[in-house]
Amino acid sequence: MRNIDGKTRLCGLIGNPVAHTMSPAIHNTLAEELDHNLVYSAFPVQESLLEDAIKGAWALNALGLNVTVPYKSAVLPYLTEMDPLAEKIGAVNTLVRKETGFKGYNTDMPGLYRAMQEDGVELSGEDVLILGAGGVARAVAMMAATYGAATITVLNRTVEKAEVVCKEVQNAFPKAEIQAMALEDYRKLPGYAYVTIQATNVGMHPDVEGVVIADTDFYQKVKAGYDLVFNPAVTRFMQCVRKAGAPAFNGLKMLLYQGIIAYELWNDCQVPAGAVALAYEKMKEAMGIHE
Ligand code: NAP
Q1: Count of CB atoms within 10 A of residue 231's CB?
Q2: Closest ligand 1 atom to the C-alpha of 230?
Q3: What digits encode the pLDDT tens for the residues 41-78?
Q4: CB of 134 sitting under 6 A from ligand 1
Q5: 69 closest CA partner among 26, 142, 104, 19
Q6: Which of 56, 137, 167, 287 could form a disulfide with 132 if both were Cys (CB 3.0 to 4.6 A apart)?
Q7: pLDDT of 111-128, one tens digit each?
Q8: Which value, in Å, is the radius of gyration of the alpha carbons in the chain?
Q9: How many angstroms separate the alpha carbon of residue 81 from the centre of ligand 1?
Q10: Over its length of 291 residues, how does the chain's per-residue pLDDT go in tens digits?
Q11: Is 212 a pocket residue for ligand 1 (Cβ < 6 Å)?
Q12: Which residue, judged by its Cα, is nearest atom 17 of ligand 1?
């Protein structure tokens, strides 16, 4: 445990609830490993006090904040600046102290992108299939357009929500080839080698037997599968992808890298590979996950 003194800087997480968070394990490990005089704590915040919480953190000279559910969009009115990607996504998970207030970033998507790079999965020129059309799926669709996917298909149980996501991405990226489909129509998918990102909550603990598409034929069309769910570490979706012969990954590294990128923004540094690996181990240890 590092010494806390008069120069210690404060970072933290706001959301509700926050008791389950792994972010303190990531950031306090990095601070100790990189010898930064910083502590990171989690703060449950009531909705009616959200503005006070952000203004209070600013007044207390906090270096930065992470923001989690349900406030990723609700904090936007209290920020003085926005990073362009976060602006497109319409949600932030990281606030960085600037001259006159906090600047909002979204490190979830760059976090997923960094995880994909590390796992050797490309988006550029690929047919990208997104299962789900919630907050995270919308951000993934923006990311796929940002990184030059050849086509993007958003498949969702409620097709109207997929249509809204597609319209928003099309407005932000007029040249994007993007279409919405109902989940039940998955047999009509025209491609045969999709980079598939599972962005629904199906299969999350305790519903570990759940899988958004159970038909084994579907998985013949999956070139690589990413499940953004990270508990359990191997979801049924991942098992289906692997059984069909393609690589499959969980959402743990996305979770790790959203934290690494936030830490780099706060401290204006590049976290070296050894510290990333240690933070990954500490995060999994805190979750009780043994891969
Ligand atoms: P959300 O906004 O609530 O969206 C949930 C999505 O799941 C919707 O598309 C919904 O479809 C679909 N869905 C729910 N139950 C379903 C069912 N039984 N059958 C078919 N579809 C179903 O959630 P979110 O915030 O986007 O989060 C989605 C997932 O991402 C969660 O599992 C979360 O753990 C994960 N996540 C991971 C990370 C990470 O760092 N790895 C970060 C954030 C989130 P409808 O529209 O039809 O309701």
Answers
A1: 17
A2: 41
A3: 999 999 999 999 999 999 999 999 999 999 999 999 99
A4: yes
A5: 19
A6: 137
A7: 999 999 999 999 999 999
A8: 19
A9: 28
A10: 678 999 999 999 999 999 999 999 999 999 999 999 999 999 999 999 999 999 999 999 999 999 999 999 999 999 999 999 999 999 999 999 999 999 999 999 999 999 999 999 999 999 999 999 998 999 999 999 999 999 999 999 999 999 999 999 999 999 999 999 999 999 999 999 999 999 999 999 999 999 999 999 999 999 999 999 998 999 999 999 999 999 999 999 999 999 999 999 999 999 999 999 999 999 999 888 766
A11: yes
A12: 202
Residue 276, CA atoms < 13 Å, CB-side half-sphere: 21
Strand order in the sheet with 127-131: 178-182, 151-156, 127-131, 194-198, 222-227, 248-249
Tokens for 50, please give them: 């959200």
Catalytic residues: 72
132 CA to centre of ligand 1 in angstroms: 6
Number of neighbours of residue 131 by Cβ within 10 angstroms: 27
CA–CA separation, 211 vs 195, rounded Å? Answer: 17
Residue holding tokens 């789900």? 132
Q: Which of 113, 140, 200, 287 has the most ligand 1 atoms within 8 A of CB, as the residue to mutate?
A: 200
Question: Which ligand 1 atom lies nearest to the CA of residue 252?
Answer: 41
What end-to-end distance do the CA atoms of the chain give, in Å?
A: 26
Q: Longest Cα pair distance anywhere in the chain, in angstroms?
A: 62
133 CA closest ligand 1 atom index = 9
**Which protein residue's CA is at the shortest distance from atom 19 of ligand 1?**
212
Q: Which residue is associated with the tokens 């270096």?
A: 63
pTM over 0.90: yes
Residue 74's nearest CA partner among 111, 48, 101 is 48
Mutation to probe ligand 1, out of 23, 157, 160 (largest number of atoms < 8 A from CB): 157
d(CA 203, CA 231): 9
